[in-house]
Design goal:
The chain is of the alpha+beta class. It folds into two domains: 94 residues; 216 residues, BirA Bifunctional Protein, domain 2 (2-Layer Sandwich). It is 43% helix and 20% strand. α2 packs antiparallel against α4. It is elongated and about 120 Å long.
């Protein structure tokens, strides 16, 4: 028959020895092995409990109670050590991943450059702000009213076919021009006004060397008493000369836009051929009526410039698609 004193001694020795083993564990795997050795189905505690059957019935509760105390102690020590190891691992990772911002950089590094589209927009804005224009912006997701109707383009107007539109849900669309900003600005401001409106626009154009479904425009709008087409031509020539130099040839071709009358296309001479950079014209009286201006008192002119076309002329780029490839070899040419 198993001796009560012997089992008691084994449990006491287990209780004392397991503390040092658990404290000495360095990894979760070592901790798990200790748990198996002491509390597993074939562990030391299970062996002691298995020997209880040989004790007299009166002694079994004594050993059972002591075994439960040892089991709870081991479980508590294991949990505390597990938490300590997890916290130590987190601290180690934080220390290892900390960036020392005072250390010198690793050569060679690539400095960021201003994208040629952004640079071209900035150049245009600098020139126009210097002429007294104010920068105005509006949403890229527009309503049919601001993108078409208020610009003298009702639902059945054939001019809508000129701009193949990306339509969204709930009657919204991606704006096809920044002219929509004109309407929003004029609704909130009285003449005289002079604004320049930069931004992205969207049309279902087939992709080729001079067309892309997303591109950038800068819209000019001036409204005052007595403005003429001559004022428009002078502003256009001044801007083109400031961008490209006085030797750059400019021409105006008669055209049609529902929101300007008369209207013209602006071309510049580039690599021996004419390249269209935008459309312009005198603001149609119906546009003034839509925003509450008196067309008998005020006149105005507008010009929408294609920024990609301008950048192609400025930097002698032969394909509009190069702006959207994120090719470092191409972008590193620009400052």
């Amino acid at each position: 028959m198993t001796d009560l004193a012997a089992l008691r001694t084994q449990l006491e020795e287990m209780s004392a020895g397991v503390k040092d083993l658990i404290n000495g564990a360095q990894t979760p795997d070592q901790l798990e092995q200790i748990r198996i050795d002491f509390l597993g189905k074939k562990g030391k505690l299970s062996q002691i409990l298995g020997a209880m059957g040989k004790l007299p019935p009166a002694d079994r509760p004594v050993i059972g109670a002591l075994a439960n105390e040892v089991k709870e102690l081991v479980q508590s020590l294991l949990e505390e050590k597990k938490t300590a190891l997890q916290q130590a691992e987190i601290a180690r990772k934080l220390a290892a991943e900390t960036i020392d911002v005072t250390m010198p950089g690793v050569f060679p590094w690539r400095l960021g450059r201003v994208h040629p589209i952004t640079a071209t927009i900035d150049r245009v804005l600098d020139i126009m702000v210097g002429l007294g224009y104010t920068v105005a912006q509006g949403p890229e997701v527009e309503t049919d009213y601001y993108n078409f109707e208020a610009l003298n383009t009702p639902a059945d107007h054939p001019a809508r076919d000129m701009q193949d539109t990306f339509y969204l849900q709930d009657g919204l669309l991606l704006r096809t021009h920044t002219s929509s900003v004109q309407i929003r600005f004029m609704e909130q401001n009285d003449p005289p006004i002079r604004i320049v409106c930069p931004g992205r626009v969207y049309r279902k154009d087939d992709v080729d060397a001079t067309h892309f479904p997303m591109f950038h425009q800068v819209e000019l709008l001036a409204v005052d008493e007595g403005l003429t087409f001559g004022d428009l031509k002078g502003t256009v020539r001044l801007l083109v000369e400031a961008l490209f130099g006085g030797e750059c040839e400019v021409r105006f071709r008669p055209s049609f836009f529902p929101f300007t009358e008369p209207s013209a296309e602006v071309d510049v001479k580039w690599q021996g051929r004419w390249l269209e950079i935008g459309g312009c014209g005198m603001v149609d009286p119906n546009v003034f009526k839509a925003v509450g201006y008196d067309p008998d008192l005020y006149t105005g002119f507008a010009w929408g410039l294609g920024i990609e076309r301008l950048a192609m002329v400025l930097h002698q780029i032969d394909d509009i698609r190069r702006f959207f490839t994120s090719d470092w070899r191409f972008l590193q040419q620009f400052y």
